[in-house]
Design brief:
6 helices; alpha/beta; five-stranded mixed beta sheet
């Protein structure tokens, strides 16, 4: 369900806490550093670091991707945090072209195990059947 207030684009604090908690319990994650209100850097074992922009946009569009990338220095991934949030095909394709992953919360939890093209192309097992 879309938000039309303070948390329309900024994730709720409890969503950010849950994201960090899940990542901290992941064996591949060494550390998570907050880089700003909506940015974290994930330090991983034997993988590259991943700088993540967290958003609460209900459906991340191509225009949203352009806006995020104009406001934030280099990021490796954009994650839309709420369980019912998603993104458009065009937004996903543009991010991939730029070497940036665009994920839902649940997708990112699996993508975090990968680097490079495998990271960018990650599809959650529930969605592979579709």
């Amino acid at each position: 369900m879309p938000e039309f207030g303070k948390y329309e684009k900024i994730p709720r604090p409890e969503s950010i806490e849950a994201f960090i908690k899940y990542l901290n319990s992941n064996p591949i994650v060494i550390n998570i550093e907050r880089k700003g209100l909506q940015v974290v850097e994930i330090i991983r074992k034997e993988k590259s670091n991943v700088k993540v922009f967290m958003t609460n946009i209900y459906i991340v569009s191509l225009a949203d991707v352009y806006e995020i990338l104009s406001e934030v220095e280099q990021v490796d991934a954009i994650v839309t945090m709420s369980a019912w949030n998603s993104y458009t095909k065009e937004a996903k394709e543009e991010c991939k072209k730029r070497g940036i992953g665009l994920f839902s919360f649940k997708e990112f939890m699996g993508a975090v195990y990968y680097d490079g093209q495998q990271f960018l192309d990650y599809v959650h097992p529930d969605d592979r059947k579709k």
